[in-house]
């Protein structure tokens, strides 16, 4: 009996400890360098692979748990990794300072000359002997065999461009009115899909920034851990499209109405 009780307590403490470690928090901060703020810096949580970008004022907001690692990077700056500690979570703030990347060129030998960069003047300053030596070097045809001739240079096969079939079953270009195979005809669709996926990825962070943490976590009482899940719960009602069209009042109405039913569901679970 005692063994069963001890085993139960051990499992309970282990689960409690695990849940405590995985609890998610929101931290904010500013990304700067020695001169000022850095906008469009990429901040990514390497544990959850969720990321965001700093605003024009260098501000950012991201979800973290204790022990997570943030990677901060931007063009022309040295990337930085930061481990989320208990102190950072308590402060709910993390300001990040990036150092500029220094690029060095290979050594080269700079020879002194008296040239000004103007042909009319420089040619007068170069001695005649040196001009003749340079000319002889450029105009040296001693290794050219003028007796050999290539009569195929004027063949039609040399001047006619090859027909390249870029797609299986496509009709090659043969002249005016012929059908042309376009290997990247779906490029526009792919880029549109990529843009749509990027908007979907940034939507949770944008709406949180616009409506505020108090709206979601104090007024609607959505647990921080369930924030993304709540948005997915409301997504079939078209909240992303409403946000894209700027119809925030309708979006807020949906979030308020759905929050009560969502809380009842998660409380039952």
Detailed description of the structure:
The protein is an alpha+beta fold. Helix 8 (227-234) crosses helix 10 (248-268). The chain is built from 10 helices and 7 strands. The chain is 43% helix and 12% strand. It has helices at 2-22, 86-91, 119-125, 128-138, 156-159, 187-211, 213-219, 227-234, 239-244, 248-268; strands spanning 25-32, 42-45, 50-53, 59-64, 69-73, 80-83, 96-97. Strand 2 and strand 3 form a beta hairpin. The chain starts with a helix and ends with a helix. The model is unreliable at 5-20 and 164-182 (pLDDT under 50). The chain has a 4-stranded antiparallel sheet with strand order 3-2-5-6, with no helix packed on it. The chain has a 3-stranded mixed sheet with strand order 4-1-7. The radius of gyration is 34 Å and the shape is elongated.
Summarize the structure.
This protein has helices spanning 2-22, 86-91, 119-125, 128-138, 156-159, 187-211, 213-219, 227-234, 239-244, 248-268, and strands spanning 25-32, 42-45, 50-53, 59-64, 69-73, 80-83, 96-97. A four-stranded antiparallel beta sheet has the order 3-2-5-6, with no helix packed on it. Strands 4-1-7 form a three-stranded mixed beta sheet.
């Amino acid at each position: 009996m005692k063994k069963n009780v001890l085993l139960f307590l051990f499992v309970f403490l282990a689960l409690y400890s695990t849940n405590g470690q995985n609890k998610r928090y929101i931290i904010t901060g500013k990304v700067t360098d020695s001169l000022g703020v850095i906008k469009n810096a990429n901040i990514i949580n390497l544990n959850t692979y969720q990321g965001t970008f700093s605003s024009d004022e260098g501000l950012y907001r991201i979800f973290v748990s204790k022990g997570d690692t943030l990677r901060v990077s931007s063009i022309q700056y040295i990337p930085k990794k930061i481990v989320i500690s208990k102190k950072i979570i308590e402060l709910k703030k993390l300001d990040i300072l990036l150092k500029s990347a220094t690029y060095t060129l290979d050594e080269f030998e700079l020879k002194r000359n008296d040239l000004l960069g103007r042909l009319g003047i420089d040619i007068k300053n170069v001695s005649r002997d040196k001009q003749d030596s340079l000319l002889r070097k450029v105009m040296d045809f001693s290794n050219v065999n003028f007796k050999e001739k290539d009569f195929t240079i004027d063949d039609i096969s040399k001047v006619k461009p090859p027909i390249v079939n870029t797609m299986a079953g496509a009709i090659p270009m043969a002249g005016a009115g012929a059908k042309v195979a376009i290997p990247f005809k779906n490029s526009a669709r792919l880029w549109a899909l990529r843009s749509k996926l990027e908007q979907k990825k940034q939507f949770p962070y944008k709406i949180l920034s616009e409506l505020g943490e108090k709206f979601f976590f104090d007024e609607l009482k959505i647990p921080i851990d369930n924030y993304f899940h709540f948005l997915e719960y409301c997504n079939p009602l078209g909240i992303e499209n409403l946000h894209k069209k700027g119809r925030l009042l309708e979006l807020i109405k949906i979030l308020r109405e759905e929050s009560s039913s969502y809380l009842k569901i998660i409380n039952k679970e």
